[in-house]
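Posted in: Structural Biology > Protein-Ligand Complexes

Title: Requesting predicted complex, iron/sulfur cluster in pocket

I'd be grateful if someone could produce the 3D structure tokens for the following input. Sequence and ligand are given below.
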Amino acid sequence: MSKNSNIKKVVLEKAKCIGCATCVVLCPEVFSFNDSETIAVVNDKAVETTDCEKVRSAVQACPSEALLIKE
Ligand code: SF4
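-- Reply #1 --
Done. Output follows.
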């Protein structure tokens, strides 16, 4: 799989996140879980080094459309 050459950033809309942790399971390099806020957080530093398809699948799997890719 190709690396991220065109994903610059993943934005998490905190208000939309329902804390299902799907993104964390699918791509733990980029997404982690904030237990105190019970929402996901994005590790933007990992976005450009993690497999592109893995990031995209996590973004697409988000049930509340809280994640947005900036290319
Ligand atoms: S998949 Fe979406 S709703 Fe679920 S934790 Fe991640 S950002 Fe939040």
